[in-house]
Amino acid sequence: MKNYFKGSIGVTARQFNLWIHRYVGLGTAVFLLITALTGALLAFEEPLDNWFNRKLAYVEPQTSQPLSIAQLHDQVVATFPQKKFSSMPIEIESNRAVVFNVDRDRSKSTQPTNTPTFQQVFVNPYTGDIIGTRDREQWAWQNTMWKVFWLHRNLLMGDIGQTTLGIAGLLWTLNCFVGLYLTLPRARKQAANASLPTRSRSWLQQWSRAWTVRRFSSWFKLNYDLHHALGLWFWLLALPIAWASVGFNLKPVYQPVMALMGAQDAPKPKTDAPRSQQISMTDHTLTINKYQAIDTLTTMAQRQAQADGLHFVRPLGIRWQVEDGAWQLRFKTAEDIGNGRGASSITVNAQTGVVSKINYGARAAVVNKAEHWWYALHRAHFDNRWYPILLAVFGIATAVMCVTGVYLWWRGRQARQKQRAKQQAKSLQMRA
């Protein structure tokens, strides 16, 4: 490859890859800088969101026992009968309001409505009183983290921004490999009698310099070292996060690639059944109604996981599948990867109480497990309080790499302009 480039177009493979790295980096620098800094904030999305929204998110702890989730759900449904609330939280914290999310409207109706728009309802767990609702689409202080999320996801530009960031993620993925190649030592002539261990040791010693930042060096060398070292230190995190961003934002590219690798498609969501065919989750004739669902399905999930050789950790959330008249509990086992896409679930027919489906994240195909890893790494979906810190540091490091990369290009451009001017002056002198 090296000889081909040098012989056919006058550049070496290293020069060609340097050109790719330089201009792909320049083309994506602004987008990566924005997503890196917003990603650093989103590593702590929940606590930051609660802080910005503290008037709704927090309550005064009381000595009395809180109401059950089902009772709180009753209060919400009675207060907002025009809305649907199919999902319920699992746990109640002593100083936190209980949040119920409004179902997304999957209809394509464009008719205006007089109903106030909101997506969340906050309830006092001790009294059942509605603390308030939140319309996360509004530009308001309490929605700061929601806007940060969409700035990170699509630059607040809808589908155009999402596609743009998907392309940037694809180029970033490519640049991860190109950048790694450029950190490798250049080939040098070795003594003919040098042994293989000696050559290997020499090569590793040269490469180890790319991992370090020289102290007391010039400003240019500091930027150069930071750009190389940070890229190497975080390479194993950068690659899956970059590819996950393609999965989030550029599915026409991501899905065919993953299908070729053997990934299995997730089931498509069903459309709502006609209202005449819908079963109420509060129907007392059901074997498992709303008031029993959380405890019953948690117990069933524990027993089923144990029977299948897995270790149940905790429930994550429950929702009512109105189209099937069934409950679905998402839960985590010790063998699952993260608590997002890699989590497990159990679906139980509410009329018969029979398990209709169980899905273990730990039993997914190998390629799907890889997907679980990079999505969990990207979204910090781990029960680990240290990982968000690592993810935030990675976001800051990526921002530094963007800035140092642009600086190195600018200094290199200045040097190339000076060299070109010298050559032109020399050429003029020779002509004179």
UniProtKB/TrEMBL annotation:
Domain of life here? Bacteria
Membrane in keyword set: yes
| Transmembrane helix is among the record's keywords | yes
Family matches, as InterPro entries: PepSY-ass_TM (IPR005625)
Q: Which UniProt keywords apply?
A: Membrane, Transmembrane, Transmembrane helix
| Entry's transmembrane regions | 23-44, 160-182, 230-250, 386-410
Record-given protein name: Peptidase
Q: What organism is listed for this UniProt entry?
A: Faucicola atlantae
Q: What is the lineage of its organism?
A: Bacteria, Pseudomonadati, Pseudomonadota, Gammaproteobacteria, Moraxellales
